[in-house]
Amino acid sequence: MKSKHSRLDRFINKHSHFSLSDTRLLIAQGRILVDSQPAHSIRQRIGEFSTVVLDGLYLQDRQPVYLMFNKPKGCVCATKDNKHKTVLDFLEHPQKQELHIVGRLDFNSTGLVLLTNDGAWSRKLSLPETKLNKIYRVVLAKAITEAELASYQKAFSEGMYFGYEGVQTKPAVLELINPNTALVTLVEGKYHQVKRMFGRFDNEVLELHRLSVGHIALDEDLQEGDARELSKTESALDSRVRRS
Ligand code: URA
Questions:
Q1: Which CATH homologous superfamily contains domain 66-235?
Q2: Three-class SS of residue 150?
């Protein structure tokens, strides 16, 4: 199988008019940046989506793709499923077979799903240390009264112990839009997390819609089942990963 990495000198030679042997000098002159750091060796490994900048110009092997998808109910966040439609079945993108999903939603959840072929980007978004806010709008079976709200909020912000995984959930924020509709902000994505948190109050989640992931908000003009490319600003992650 063809390696997805190449040496820096070969990469520079392939993507510019400089020869293999010029690379050493370019490095010494500090003219090459790899992933925002000065290059240090002609043997440095360059991945598919490494950003290599030579004299201020970006050189790249393959076009990265970043999409937002407005997931409808009854579709699986997977690339293949024998029974149900998957997110990929909705896409018409020419590179769709290369894409993977960043942060799944349950079968009947709706809203923002991100897809990419850039593994470094999705890893960065998903790292627990990144603690990216994910905001969900939740419709509940039982109304939350003013009197009950404080105990819900306390439990969400203190975190709940999930015995199955043996973990305490990270502080979450709960706000009410109306007695049956809440906004929940999480910084992680445990299995069925929102449903399980309301489950502690014996309150069933009837609808769950993801509105945003970090600074990337679901485009209100995007119809259910449609996808669009992220803008440069949306896909840009600075060193801290932008927060919402
Ligand atoms: N929490 C859930 O319970 N379901 C989702 O789809 C997302 C978060």
A1: Pseudouridine synthase (3.30.2350.10)
A2: helix
